[in-house]
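Ticket 4471: requesting a sanity check on a complex prediction with iron/sulfur cluster. Repro inputs:
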Amino acid sequence: MITVNGITLDWYEGKTVRDVIQEMNYLFPLLIARINGKLIPRNKYDSTEIPDKASVDIIHLMSGG
Amino acid sequence: MADRKMITIEIDGKSVSVEKDTTILEAAQSIDVYIPALCNSELVEPYAACRLCIVEVNDGRKTKLVTSCNYPVRKHIRVYTSSETVLRNRKITLEMMLSRWPNVQVIKDLAKNAGIEKSRYQHPAVDLNPNACILCGLCMRVCEQGIWENIINFTNRGAVRAVRMPYDSEQPHCVGCGACAEICPTGAITMVDDPNQPYDAKMIRKAGMRITEEMIKYDEEQCDMRGVGTAHLVEIMDAYDLLPVMNYRYGKHEETPKISSDIFRKYFTKGKPDGCWLGCTMACAKAIENFELKTGPYKGERVLVDGPEYETLGGSSNMGIFDPYFVAEYNFYCDTYGLDTISFSTGTSFVMECYEAGVLDKEKTGGLELPFGAKDAALELLHQIGRGEGFGLIAGKGIRYMKKYFVENFGADPDFVFDIGMEAKGMEYSEYVTKESLAQQGGYGIALKGAQHDEAWLIFMDMVNKQIPTFEDKAEALHYFPMWRTWFSLCGLCKLPWNDVEPADNAETDEPAKVPAHVQGYCEFFEGVTGKPQTMDSLIRMSEKVYNFQRVFNLKMGFGRREHDAIPYRSAGPVTVEEYESRQERYDTQLREDAGIDPAGMSSEEKVAATRKHREAQYEHLLDAVYKRRGWTNNGVPTAAKLLELGVDFPDVIELVTKHGG
Ligand code: SF4
Ligand code: SF4
Ligand code: FES
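Returned structure tokens:
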């Protein structure tokens, strides 16, 4: 189990930041990802695996008028 | 963007692992190996004009001399940046350059670095100007590739080759962005026109250039403002259940892909930046050319449609219409009649819901059949509004008027029309579903001008990120963001460059939502114009004065008290059973977890009522917290003490607020 923005999700070995973004259907491009508080650069979303029991924040910035 | 394949290469004996297709120059820079590169910049495609960046490459079979700025790494290679051959060739190039442009500082520096005291050559076209053009081509590439303009280019050949505007004349299409001057390594291009005599034009241009650089480097992967403008939000809002569908009943629809940005990308005039004003490199305005109108006074004519933007598209889904041709047509006619697409579409959504609920019928609308999705009738209504005729005379006066009119003349149930008529302070809601974000309900309800999101757009912060969980957190956001966004209006600036592109290191800052680097840029902008240094706090302070003064103005005009910050219930929660049941799991969970009520055994009607009671109380709590944070009374009136602190304590202002308990 992991939490993403306070929501509980299943965990499996090898689950990446990108997998979580897809599972949550987070389409917005201006995201900031943190695993247990640690910042993950955008170009590492595919390769960064999330450990079990992690607390993940996918912060959405704002855009538009 | 998927992570690319990594390749390990060797540069001067050092190993470095880089993504496939990285250039040798970039690879060297990443491990601090210096290679001189005069005609290269990360803002443009390589051009290989100066040949100073040459290196030797060995691919295991042979060694060759290549320009490193445009040599992509595709397999393991060994690179030598300072071999004898490299140094000898580079020296010859530099001596040639020095002989032609002996006084240009970058050339002198590079030559000195390479150990050249004096050139052995004599150039027939020697140019003694210290700001001579060295023909690197950076300016024309940034203009074409970075700004999407094509204003300057090389003319002539050989010794008289030079950078020029066509026919050597001033070009009306030059947006004056200054990117060419900024990128020029010799100062050959300077911006001369400062008609407004700012205090420090350079400071302003530098701040502007930072945004331009971000646009060039990141826009395509971030918001794609230059490609499709704000239309990119359609599919995003749908994904988060925030796109208004059928008068804000729902937040998504299976037909949304028909009006998504991908569809409009095909119709938009391509590859041309279209800014609202000269110099804007975000240029998010889009246009559809050659659009053939099917209705109205210009039926059959081909016209240019200015748009559509997000709000116009969201307005269409709100009317239950998912047809790009309809969108272009209603966009054009709203503009032509001088109507706002938001007011028209939100107003018509209300009419459609009233029609479906039986408040209206064909007789009352003068023959128009107006259920959701009725695009022909919606266009006819638009033309009637434009002509000031028929039912258009009623609908054109807006939702606040219609609510009263329907109750008084058509026997409508006042509770129902007031719940679903999406306006606040007499202005129609813009196109976001706010039910799941209490902070945004406040953002609409408390906004001085009425239900518009341009004071605060907090839905992601509140609903998705859960960054502002308490009433105090929400009140703080409803202090900072409205003040910050008001500041743009004070200065007559567009706020999109603040948050529709972001710097690479924004995520590492303390408060990324504020985009601190851009706030700093606006401080510099203000200082550059006025000569007065600013901080984030001082900008907010400017707004606070005006904002409070405006609230007092509202009060004077009969709009500035708590009762005027009320919102229609549709913006806070499900009005109908049908709405509740469409998101039953969500609402049931919220009843249980947020309101402490067990929904088991309750009927849908009871659940709607319980949800409403809870949400309406939450909204009142929010108002309490926001007023407190802003230094207003519990009735939403700025206190005399607050106005004194802000220096707007004029006698008539104080008299007015005191009369209202402030
Ligand atoms: S100011 Fe901008 S648009 Fe004009 S020539 Fe320079 S880069 Fe091109
Ligand atoms: S004007 Fe400046 S940027 Fe343009 S080609 Fe000449 S030296 Fe290069
Ligand atoms: S930097 Fe490579 S040729 Fe000029």
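Notes from triage: The pocket of iron/sulfur cluster (ligand 1) is lined by residues B 142-143, 147, 149, 151-152, 174-180 (CB under 6 Å). Leaving this open until the requester confirms.
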